[in-house]
Design a protein that fits this description.
eight-stranded mixed beta sheet
Length: about 400
């Protein structure tokens, strides 16, 4: 059924949808109609909601839905398995990994993954932080309850969407380790949860991601506007070269940290108007998405931030000449565990980014991680390698300073 998930969110052909509809006992229309979406939703969310019937037990339900008793227990804390109440509702996780790592990510798929994780593992918390320029939700996902607060984000840039499943897969593996008392990189999940509270924003730029990964098609709201902007920049391939939001603003150049310097640099390069990349906006924080990130960061007050981008296998850790105690050493440990290089940011990219703003505002460690190698958008075939390289960084960032 993971294939069905891919079909649903990549707008698969009518023949494939007809096959699913026939197998599910639905009217065979070949269209993504309401009944088909409803039938697919448990596989998108990774669980079914069921009502307890007479004679049901966790074991019987696990057998019926081909899952495990342990998964049902994790999803239903506080339920007395020996005295299930007839008519009460249960969450039944389905027995497959929720986060897909072999298909392009979309805003809708990201949203399903976050909501599904929060249902499978109720100690995960999620909220909609706000909405993008075209009304797509930007969600957080929070795990752990430890004193060290960290904030990881991904997909500021549309064609760097492969960073979103990196954070989602990390969240799924961390949640599993917490729920089952297993380890992540040799550290017990409950110990990590007691050490830190991890705040994730897996997709900062959902509109742009949908354009690059094909969820937006010609005729859809926003597609034609983006294509018209791209006509002024024929040297940038469309849509795969698109980094900005759908209003043509590069979100990682929209923060109040050397914004005027960024504007000067990018204007000199010819990006003086909304564009697929490198346009800084009319003013700092004139975009919904960057405002959401600033507001959420202020609410969290994190000790550390990681901003995930692609590509280059490089870690950037500085902004101007601000001195941040411990930042360079921690960056060296990140580099050692990942195999990436710890480097200074090239001058042309030195201003107005999220990491820059955080360092300026808080004088705490902030890092831009440029994952993978190649030309953006990186192929999904690189996911396993990228995840392997970055899992150590994600875990290491959670550890308390006394251990580091």
């Amino acid at each position: 059924m993971n294939e069905m998930l891919a079909l649903a969110l990549k707008r698969a052909g009518a023949d494939n949808l007809r096959a699913f509809q026939q197998s599910a006992g639905l009217p065979v229309t070949g269209e993504m109609d309401a009944a088909t979406i409803t039938a697919l939703e448990p596989y998108l969310l990774g669980y079914r909601g069921v009502v307890v019937q007479e004679g049901d037990t966790f074991y019987i339900l696990a057998q019926r839905y081909e899952t495990t008793v342990e998964a049902i227990e994790a999803a239903n804390p506080g339920v007395d398995a020996s005295h299930l109440m007839i008519g009460s509702s249960l969450i039944i996780p389905l027995n497959f990994p929720l986060v897909p790592t072999n298909i392009p990510m979309t805003a809708e798929l990201c949203d399903y993954c976050i909501r599904g994780l929060a249902a499978r593992y109720p100690f995960c918390r999620t909220e909609v932080l706000g909405y993008s320029a075209y009304g797509r939700p930007i969600r957080s996902l929070v795990l752990g309850q430890g004193p060290k607060k960290v904030l990881y984000n991904a997909s500021h840039h549309a064609n760097e969407w492969i960073t979103t499943p990196v954070l989602l897969k990390f969240a799924e593996e961390l949640a599993q380790a917490i729920a089952t008392n297993n380890t992540l990189l040799g550290i017990p999940g409950p110990q990590l949860a007691q050490a830190a509270t991890v705040h994730l924003v897996p997709m900062v730029n959902p509109d742009g991601v949908d354009l690059v990964t094909g969820a937006l098609q010609p005729g859809d709201d926003g597609y034609e506007a983006a294509r018209n902007l791209a006509l002024y920049f024929p040297q940038i391939p469309f849509p795969e070269g698109w980094k900005a939001n759908l209003l043509g603003v590069d979100l990682n150049l929209n923060y109040p940290a050397g914004w005027l310097e960024a504007k000067k640099i990018k204007y000199a390069m010819g990006f003086t108007r909304p564009a697929p990349r490198d346009y800084v906006g009319k003013a700092p924080l004139d975009q919904r998405e960057s405002v959401i990130m600033v507001n959420y960061t202020k609410a969290v007050d994190p000790a550390l931030v990681l901003a995930y981008h692609t590509q280059g296998q490089v870690i950037y850790w500085q902004f101007r000449d601000y001195e941040v105690p411990g930042a360079e050493q921690l960056g060296k440990w990140f580099a050692e565990i990942s195999g990436y290089a710890l480097e200074d940011v090239p001058y042309a990219s030195s201003f107005a980014g999220y990491k820059d703003w955080f360092i300026q505002e808080y004088r705490r460690p902030g890092y831009t991680i440029e994952a993978g190698l190649g030309e953006n958008p990186l192929p999904i075939s690189q996911f396993d390698q990228i995840y392997h390289e970055n899992l150590g960084i994600l875990v290491l960032g959670m550890l308390p300073e006394s251990i580091l």
